[in-house]
TrEMBL record:
Keyword annotations: Glycoprotein, Membrane, Signal, Transmembrane, Transmembrane helix, Vacuole
Domain of life: Eukaryota
Lineage, highest ranks first: Eukaryota, Viridiplantae, Streptophyta, Embryophyta, Tracheophyta
Name of the protein in question: Strictosidine synthase conserved region domain-containing protein
Entry similarity comment: Belongs to the strictosidine synthase family.
TM region(s), chain numbering: 12-31
GO cellular component entries: vacuole
InterPro entries linked: 6-blade_b-propeller_TolB-like (IPR011042), Strictosidine_synth_cons-reg (IPR018119)
Domain Strictosidine synthase conserved region: 198-284
Length: 417
């Protein structure tokens, strides 16, 4: 019987040589023996993600038909390189920005310009690290772990210390005078390295909450976290008095931005892979538990509070129907991203066209405002939005400028409460 099955199989393959060729090619793609695919040489194991249905999110999401984010201006062109996070100190000076070349810089006004406020690595050198506009390209990747890549920035308003989440050097601090190499505070937790520190916020009691995006991939490889859907990220807490770091949550899919509420009874964090905002309770009967705040149309980065206690979220937009298919079929991702084509072409074929939007939420997750830039006129990739003195200051991890938008702007959104 077994021989008969083999004979039938061999007969079919001989009669249909194109089928045989297809099977051979498919086998080569899946095995990727020459490691020429975008995921070649990696332990790429896609999994399903806990993400809201595409139609449920996209059909109810308000659109900014006026494209108001495109009305902003680009400032400091080719003067700052990948300014992911923006801060202002207790005296209102700034912005401060963490750059792709490993520096934290401060704007000192037109007469002085930008000055280096601090470095995150003792191994930093101008020759190896300062690549100018190329700092936000792959030319920086080989030296990035040595030079550092500061992401989240926060000032402690009580003492003027600047805390930094660096994707390679963990949690660090700089004293108010600046001009020095940042002091490392947390590089490991429970004996394991913090592989991808991303963003942070500071509680009034001194505790520092920060995200470790992945225990498998570092920042340069961040796109593979999204492709694979792996969920090894963590929410951590550093306690200055004991100089210890604790794991609050684990099993998170690309935890990214962190923001405490105005009364500090909870914090919000974004899960980039799952396109959502989550709440973690710090006080009350729900202490230590999480709940969903909002599902998003795209991939969120940092989240920042304004004076009213509402939350600005930077979102790289948008989800597609093709992504929906990939999310629910990990095997398809495993085959598709092993095709011997550059990642940019595979992304286009999958219908991925990125642009920027920013959204304002209240603590219940209700949408208060949405600003879009569908043409990418001001910002194609956005990482953070800070509302300061009637302006939105918008950072980006991928480009060499800061966007500034007057706010509020006339709105045509029809948002049901």
């Amino acid at each position: 019987m077994e021989n008969r099955i083999f004979q039938i199989r061999d007969g079919i393959l001989l009669q249909h040589p194109f089928l045989l060729l297809f099977i051979v090619i498919l086998s080569l793609i899946i095995m990727d023996p020459f490691q020429i695919s975008p995921v070649g040489g990696r332990d790429f194991r896609p999994v399903k993600n806990d993400i809201a249905p595409y139609d449920k999110v996209m059909e109810s999401w308000p659109r900014d038909e006026l494209n108001r984010l495109g009305k902003g201006s680009l400032e400091f062109k080719d003067e700052v390189f990948g300014p992911e996070s923006l801060e202002f100190d207790t005296f209102g000076r700034g912005p401060y920005a963490g750059l792709a070349d490993g520096r934290i810089v401060r704007w000192m006004g037109e007469d002085v310009g930008w000055e280096t406020y601090a470095l995150v690595s003792r191994n930093w050198s101008e020759k190896q690290c300062a690549k100018g506009v190329d700092s936000t390209t792959s030319k920086q990747w080989e030296s990035e772990s040595k030079c550092g890549r500061p992401l989240g920035l926060r000032f402690d308003k009580r003492n003027g210390n600047l805390y930094i989440a660096d994707s390679y050097h963990g949690l660090l601090v700089v004293e108010p005078q600046g001009g020095i190499i940042a002091k490392p505070l947390a590089t490991h937790v429970d004996g394991n390295p913090i592989l991808f520190a991303n963003d942070l916020d500071i509680h009034n009691n001194g505790s520092i909450f920060f995200t470790d995006t992945s225990q498998k991939y570092n920042r340069v490889e961040h796109f593979f976290i999204l492709l694979e859907g792996e969920a090894s990220g963590r929410l951590l807490r550093y306690d200055p008095p004991t100089e210890t770091t604790h794991v609050l949550l684990e099993g998170l899919a690309f935890p990214n931005g962190v923001q405490l509420s105005k009364d500090q009874s909870f914090l919000l964090f974004t899960e980039t892979t799952n396109c959502r905002i989550m709440k973690y309770y710090l006080e009350g009967p729900k202490t230590g538990t999480t709940e969903l705040v909002a599902n998003l149309p795209g991939f969120p980065d940092n989240i920042r509070i304004n004076e009213n206690g509402d939350f600005w979220v930077a979102i790289d937009c948008c989800r597609t129907r093709a992504q929906e298919v990939f999310v629910h079929n990990p095997w398809l991702r495993s085959v598709y991203f092993r095709l011997p084509l550059p990642m940019r072409y595979l992304a286009r074929l999958a219908g991925m066209k990125m642009y920027t939007l920013v959204s304002l939420f209240n603590e219940k997750g209700e949408i208060l405002d949405v600003l879009e830039d569908r043409k990418g006129e001001v910002m194609k990739l956005v990482s953070e939005v800070r509302e300061v003195n009637g302006k939105l200051w918008i950072g980006t991890v991928a480009h060499n400028h800061i966007a500034v938008v007057p706010y509020p702007l006339q709105s045509n959104l029809n948002i049901e409460k």
